[in-house]
């Protein structure tokens, strides 16, 4: 077997480069950083000072007259490409930006910022995740090895064993920053570290560590998609607990998922795709798949999946399909024959869907899925594509739809094991319960098409949840579990031209996580100074996100609101751990310390979303009223929050070609305008119960299994969501999408608060996805986003180190 390549050039600054860097001319009194519209900051030399003004010479530019207090000091050459920015002599925006930029250009993508690690997306593969590289970090202190994701991962592993405490790895950042890829590397590291080979033992079947790693291709095939900014965007959140025994050996794993973006199954924006699995199935990567799924050769035959971009650069869908495995789906060769999955951009240059398919196929085998299950998974997936091609027409002078051809319905009937004629009947004239009686209700062509979309989303969503359930069963060994390390991967903060309910949820989650980060980094750290007896005045860094979080729990669209809210929550978690808990620790240690409020509290935004009479609360209330409309929902939001909640504001007028927005939220990462069209229906998430009843009696055993907990026309849905489960109702009470989502998010935050967290912050260096390039056409937008967090953590860490050493 060939030896792994040497990772050193991508981890260390070479001795030759160090000599060059450290022999650069330096004048600490005259050399300064000057703000620049193009580069962010440029190096200058003070030529003359008159009062508060300085004349600065800049290479390649005319001299500038700049106010003295706008200039920033330059660090000595020995700090060039510093591994930990908390060690810099001068901590300012320019120095942090310069250090990150220089390291990135030198292909050093990881840098420490005091208490957390910064990871810049390299947009290419480096040999720094091999078993050889893993061995370099195993059991090493962070100061003994260069910055790396593995150093943070091993630190969490060693802390788990030493402190006998559960740990968590929070890998955060905006969409496209590299969170999912870093998450996969963390999981692979723990699988490697926790492996327990026994001498002389003959390996029988896939190992647990192999199975843990192989969950990734399956989850990505069914849960990831191309978006405008990310070719492999996670369209769901996941919290993976890696369980270990008392001696640190791998003992199993479980996966909890949050809010799959169901709308993407039937609709995509321009330059986007539906879920990867649809294109993998169309790629021909596994022999016989399309024929058995009754699919054509043309993706544009399927409208649901061909509304945007269907190819991804550097991804082979056929290879991915072979890693997933699919057969007997009666699919054609053209994804554009399937409307639901082809409304976005269906081609992604450089992405081989066939190879991706092969990867997914292999993963299913390693995870123990039998052939019958695999066949039925892909028949249901193919049925979602065929649903987008069913045609209906309106009867003359009647509010009644009728089939306009039955070919696609017959294919769906074959795939699902149900009678096609009954399917058309149940779509056009479903039964409804009126009192104690069942009556048929005529549907218009438009109503039938809407019902079809809802069914396709429900089929795919329930299949995804069933997959997660089966993965958890596979990873649930009988070995003793003592501790776990949780690895969180959620969609990053999103601001699109059109932002819906999903974006609100995503952004809300990120708001929560940022609040968690802020608390840990800026509050708990200062509390620690107080405990240590350090003389310290508490600093309020202004990082509380609570107002924004409460406003939401109190939309872009529904999906974006959910994503952004999740990010808001996680950012609050980050803030608390980085900036609050650290200071509390100082107090406990008796350090004389005045608490610093860093201004990172996100409570206002979080409360806007989740508190009583917050956005989600009003959405829940309106969803219960049969006569409620998008307009009544908008009016209630405005009457409760416009001019009253600081994070709730009017959106800007739309640009030409843009859809209007109905309100905006000032999130920690920027102001997002949300469009509320269709939120009430999305929140209620209705499906045709008559068709569900028919499916439950069909011959596709998986279809009956995924709808087992759905009441159909007969009663109450007893599912309550959770690990791989999923329904909309709970007991005898109706449960909305937002209600279930809030429950899941609260469980996630409770789980995170019970662990010792470790943070990795991923950032985008440029919008063109070019390796080694930091965006200089704009004022380095994505690096500047986190400079405040880097600076604050560096300053706090530096202060803490100084004071702690003083008191030792």
From TrEMBL:
Residues annotated as binding ATP: 173-180
Biased composition range(s): Basic and acidic residues: 16-25, 707-720
GO biological process, one term: system development
Domain Myosin motor residue range list: 80-777
Gene Ontology MF term list: actin filament binding; ATP binding; identical protein binding; microfilament motor activity
InterPro entries: Kinesin_motor_dom_sf, Myosin_head_motor_dom-like, Myosin_S1_N, P-loop_NTPase, SH3_Myosin
UniProt region (Disordered), positions on chain: 1-25, 707-734
Record's keyword annotation contains Coiled coil: yes
Ranges where the Myosin N-terminal SH3-like domain occurs: 27-76
Alphabetized UniProt keyword annotations: Actin-binding, ATP-binding, Coiled coil, Motor protein, Myosin, Nucleotide-binding
Gene Ontology cellular component terms for the protein in this record: membrane; myosin complex; sarcomere
Region (Actin-binding): 745-767
Family: Belongs to the TRAFAC class myosin-kinesin ATPase superfamily. Myosin family.
Name the UniProt record assigns to this protein: Myosin heavy chain, muscle
Organism of this sequence: Caerostris darwini
């Amino acid at each position: 077997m060939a030896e792994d390549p040497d990772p050193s050039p991508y981890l260390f600054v070479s001795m030759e480069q160090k000599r060059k860097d450290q022999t650069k001319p330096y004048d600490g009194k005259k050399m300064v950083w000057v703000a620049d519209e193009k580069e962010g900051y440029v190096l200058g030399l003070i030529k003359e000072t008159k009062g508060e003004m300085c004349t600065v010479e800049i290479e390649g530019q005319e001299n500038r007259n700049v106010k003295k207090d706008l200039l920033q000091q330059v660090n000595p050459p020995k700090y060039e490409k510093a591994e930990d920015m908390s060690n810099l002599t001068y901590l300012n925006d320019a120095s942090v930006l310069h250090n990150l930029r220089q390291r990135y250009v030198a292909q050093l993508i990881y840098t420490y910022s005091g208490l957390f690690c910064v990871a810049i997306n390299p947009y290419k593969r480096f040999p720094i995740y091999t078993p050889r590289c893993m061995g370099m970090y195993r059991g090493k202190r962070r100061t003994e090895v260069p910055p790396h994701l593995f150093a943070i991962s091993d630190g969490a592993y060693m802390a788990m064993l030493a402190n006998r405490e559960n740990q968590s790895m929070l890998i955060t950042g905006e969409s496209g920053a590299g969170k999912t890829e870093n998450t996969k590397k963390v999981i692979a590291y723990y699988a490697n570290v926790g492996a327990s080979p026994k001498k002389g033992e003959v390996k029988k079947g896939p190992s647990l560590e192999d199975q843990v790693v192989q969950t990734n291709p399956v989850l990505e095939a069914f849960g990831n998609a191309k978006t405008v900014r990310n070719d492999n965007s996670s369209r769901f959140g996941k919290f993976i607990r890696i369980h270990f025994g008392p001696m640190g050996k791998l003992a199993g794993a479980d996966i909890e998922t949050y809010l799959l973006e169901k709308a993407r199954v039937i609709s995509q924006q321009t330059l986007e795709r539906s879920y990867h699995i649809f294109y993998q199935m169309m790629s021909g990567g596994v022999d016989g798949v399309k024929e058995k799924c009754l699919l054509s050769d043309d993706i544009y035959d399927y409208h649901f999946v061909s509304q945007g971009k269907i190819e991804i650069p550097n991804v082979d869908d056929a290879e991915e399909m072979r890693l997933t495995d699919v057969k007997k789906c009666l699919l054609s060769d053209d994804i554009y024959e399937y409307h639901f999955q082809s409304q976005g951009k269906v081609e992604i240059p450089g992405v081989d869907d066939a190879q991706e398919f092969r990867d997914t196929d292999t993963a299913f085998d390693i995870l123990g899925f039998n052939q019958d299950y695999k066949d039925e998974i892909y028949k249901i997936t193919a049925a979602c594509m065929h649903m987008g091609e069913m045609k209906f027409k309106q009867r003359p002078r009647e509010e009644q739809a009728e089939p306009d051809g039955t070919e696609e319905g017959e294919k769906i009937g074959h795939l699902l094991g149900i009678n096609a004629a009954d399917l058309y009947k149940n779509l056009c004239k479903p039964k409804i319960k009126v009192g104690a009686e069942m009556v048929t209700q005529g549907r218009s062509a438009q109503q039938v098409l809407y019902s079809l979309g809802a069914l396709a989303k429900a089929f795919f969503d329930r299949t995804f949840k069933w997959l997660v359930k089966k993965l958890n069963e596979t990873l649930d060994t009988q070995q003793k579990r003592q501790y776990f390390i949780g690895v969180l991967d959620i969609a990053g903060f999103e601001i699109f031209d059109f932002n819906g309910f999903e974006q609100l949820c995503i952004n809300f989650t990120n708001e929560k996580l940022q609040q968690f980060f802020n608390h840990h980094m800026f509050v708990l750290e200062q509390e620690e100074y107080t405990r240590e007896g350090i003389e310290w005045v508490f600093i309020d860094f202004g990082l509380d996100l609570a107002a924004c979080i409460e406003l939401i729990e109190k939309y872009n669209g529904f999906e974006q609101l959910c994503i952004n809210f999740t990010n808001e929550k996680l950012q609050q978690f980050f803030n608390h751990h980085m900036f609050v808990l650290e200071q509390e620790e100082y107090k406990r240690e008796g350090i004389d310390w005045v608490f610093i409020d860093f201004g990172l509290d996100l409570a206002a935004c979080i409360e806007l979303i989740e508190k009583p009479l917050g956005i989600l609360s009003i959405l829940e209330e309106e969803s219960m009223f049969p006569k409620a409309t998008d307009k009544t929902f908008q009016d209630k939001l405005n009457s409760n929050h416009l001019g009253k909640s600081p994070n709730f504001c009017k959106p800007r007028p739309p640009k030409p070609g843009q859809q209007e927005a109905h309100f905006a939220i000032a999130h920690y990462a920027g102001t997002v305008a949300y469009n509320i069209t269709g939120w009430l229906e999305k929140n209620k998430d209705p499906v045709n119960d008559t068709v569900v009843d028919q499916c439950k009696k069909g011959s596709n055993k998986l279809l009956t299994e995924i709808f087992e907990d759905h009441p159909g026309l007969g009663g109450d849905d007893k599912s309550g969501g959770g690990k791989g489960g999923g329904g909309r109702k709970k007991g005898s009470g109706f449960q909305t999408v937002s209600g279930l989502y809030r429950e899941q998010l609260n469980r996630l935050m409770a789980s995170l608060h019970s662990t010792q967290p470790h943070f990795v912050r991923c950032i985008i260096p440029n919008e063109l996805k070019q390796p080694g390039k930091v965006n200089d056409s704009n004022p380095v937008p994505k690096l500047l986003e986190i400079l405040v967090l880097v600076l604050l953590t560096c300053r706090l860490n530096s202060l803490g180190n100084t004071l702690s050493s003083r008191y030792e």
